[in-house]
Amino acid sequence: MESQSEHRLLEEIRSGKKEAFAKLVEPLIPKAYHTALAILRSPHLAEEAVQNAMIEAYQSIKAGKEIRHFNGWFSRVIANRALDLVRKENRFDGLDIESVIVNDTSSSPVEKILRKEQSSEILEAVMSLDIQQRTVIVLYYFQEMKIDEIANVLHVNEGTVKTRLHRARNRLSKLVSFPDLNTKVAQL
Predict the structure, then answer these.
(1) Is 129 within 8 Å of 95 (Cβ atoms)?
(2) Given 17, 115, 147, 153, which residue has the most CB atoms within 10 angstroms?
(3) 129-171: per-residue pLDDT in tens?
């Protein structure tokens, strides 16, 4: 979303236009849900994390909080609310992988099937990581956060984030049986 458009929507929300909030967050909800789902491994808890993040976002905007880049700020709020639920629940339910697979636009049905199988295997491997490794992988690759942003969200040093990413990549390269991927991950 364009910075001026985002700023205008934030001002409209502050002046009481609730429909402006829907315009602001609606495009972000699917990505937020998938991020929370990948961290929490529970559709119910992921929905709760998104709902909590939306409430926090609305209250922060109405309170006049200075938000320069809403998309990035909202991503951090989602990650924090998901981690709050991890701490609160300290348990994980099963994951419905079909709900996490992103639609692919490849040309042939065979390519779609192969890509879906690869996505399922990669996602299962990510879900098998411990919570610290899974969280940094989700924030780095799915939320496209930078190392320093992840460190800020998790309240750890950048070096710790890099170490967790490195260990997670190594573990994933052993878990996922795609020769091309294993070669690329090993090179990182």
Answers:
(1) no
(2) 153
(3) 888 888 898 888 878 888 998 998 888 999 999 999 999 999 8
